[in-house]
């Protein structure tokens, strides 16, 4: 009798988190698993016993292909912070009772660093009570801010989309023979990985953004205006790619300087930063007096499954499958990670790492990958990121729009 | 000796305006044209004698393919309002002197209704002075608001992109087991054609937007809140697609109610409406107290050449070619238009129409194509729009991003 699996998705959606789910399901099924359950709406839904039998939902090969092409979390998600056992042991009693009821042998959780925190806590608690259940994390986040994995599934597709629309936006901005400044706002709370991908727009047919503002480089209004003024003397249409997380030396987000602030989420994070591009456009308008516009790339960055990286789709599938394999091998408290083997040609493998060392930490862009003046990325970043956006996975178009699968 | 052509692009960019330029160039070249000049930055650039010899730029077949895949206006654009001869005849003297200098036989102008106004004025002036030069308009606008053409080149690709990202956004919005309202703001100044395309997201895998707000239906706050409240009783996550041009009974744009207003362009149009989605999200937040977010689809709608409609790309090319043919036939003061032959199967042909009857007019969605309560589109709209978004033209990906061509 094969192992019974329970898999959930958590945190913000991405364009490829369902490819990891497909990797978990397909690998578990091919490995002779018993039951494969999905938790609806993550751990929070599990606490309400919202489980689905994935064999009933994903039984056909076409379903797997559609799942790989469906953005957001097929199973639904949550932003539930699992308390420590000291804070609330009853939650653990309830969860482990549910695991027992459904005879779960392995719990796989696909998500970002908060989700890895959940896996770390569950595996630690499981060990403390001598449970044989294996807890494995599957990384996911467009933000690329997880430790111990070369990059995170979801990052490359978001990066490819950002590079593509930045190129298109630059074409759009160059259209009039007028002075103009366009500020594009890109996701990324504390790490600038996604904004940095705007640099990948650059090629023989495109100059790329004139300036990229990252959370890793403290923002100075006077230096910024000097830099814009300098570029303005050389060219007509200026493009600035700005991370939503750009902040001043004292850590104040630009969007808060603009007076626009939002509520905190369950993890104490700012739920939705926005206003950075409008703040910057306002600043330029006020000081330099030229035409400006602010564009937020918005939620599309994380859900544009119509344009994904084939490398990312494949790796997302692989980390899901590798997590199943780790559970079969008896591992627990681990996260399936991507380990880069070489840049040229690009090759990677999956290995597991200690989930405790991933939980609640954030990886930022090394300062040496950013130009001295803080406004461009170096060749090291290009060598790191360019291979990840290679190849495309085409949607299955039905009636003119990409077909998805829903629960 | 073949005819000499001069072609320009004007008004806001689209994802396929360059496909029309490709159609003009390729058809003129194959028809044995003499010189084929492009005006840089439209009529405004022409007045500064900014001309390029297109044979030097577009000589290879690969260039034509890249041109069809490059968004925005390859030649550059302008928003120049040609004065009447009564207002400023010197401009006409200058333009016709330039036509004489370069021995131009036909002037083709790719643009929206303001550009058709330019062609109407030039052809009328030409006739008044007995000039043999032919002036032909080539329609272009994502807004689909031109008269006498079944639809406008550019509309279908923008509509396909909007339908696609609306589908993706709906997946994204359904991810949490929470009450939420998402308001997506879609381009369209006085006509709701683009916002209406959000309805094309609907299919067996997607319910489509719960409500679509159009400029064609006067906005009432109380009715709107009632409608949202009614939907909220039935489902958790609500999606509203709103045209940027939604206005109240007395004609006030919602974005102006929000206190955000913008400057007028050279045609007296509001240059950039924005704030409609934020206004609506604020309204819902205030009255219904649930989680809301406002998303602007922004400039991407008109420059997302990575996802275009194959029908649109082909027709854009054809109207360009048909304009060349009209000039060769000795026509002037005409616009090349798309005439639909049938819906099933979808077939269309190009014919010329009187450009005077197109200039400065706007076509809106028939009220009978909008549901009685004003929040959905009917089967008539579906029958009209669905065929137009069929098929895709794939980008040529180089180094992970779509390759473009630039002047």
From TrEMBL, chains A, B:
Pathway: Carbohydrate degradation; glycolysis; D-glyceraldehyde 3-phosphate and glycerone phosphate from D-glucose: step 3/4. The record marks 140 as: Important for catalytic activity. Mg(2+) binds at residue 113. Diphosphate binds at residue 12. Residues 5-326 form the Phosphofructokinase domain. It is an enzyme of class 2 (transferase). The record marks 114 as: Important for catalytic activity and substrate specificity. Non-allosteric. InterPro entries: ATP_PFK, PFKA, Phosphofructokinase_dom, PKF_sf, PPi-PFK. One of its GO terms (molecular function) is 6-phosphofructokinase activity. GO terms for cellular component: cytoplasm. Pfam families: PFK. Substrate binds at residues 141-143, 187-189, 244. Belongs to the phosphofructokinase type A (PFKA) family. PPi-dependent PFK group II subfamily. Clade 'B2' sub-subfamily. Homodimer. Catalyzes the phosphorylation of D-fructose 6-phosphate, the first committing step of glycolysis. Uses inorganic phosphate (PPi) as phosphoryl donor instead of ATP like common ATP-dependent phosphofructokinases (ATP-PFKs), which renders the reaction reversible, and can thus function both in glycolysis and gluconeogenesis. Consistently, PPi-PFK can replace the enzymes of both the forward (ATP-PFK) and reverse (fructose-bisphosphatase (FBPase)) reactions. This is Pyrophosphate--fructose 6-phosphate 1-phosphotransferase. It comes from Candidatus Allofournierella pullistercoris. The gene is pfp.
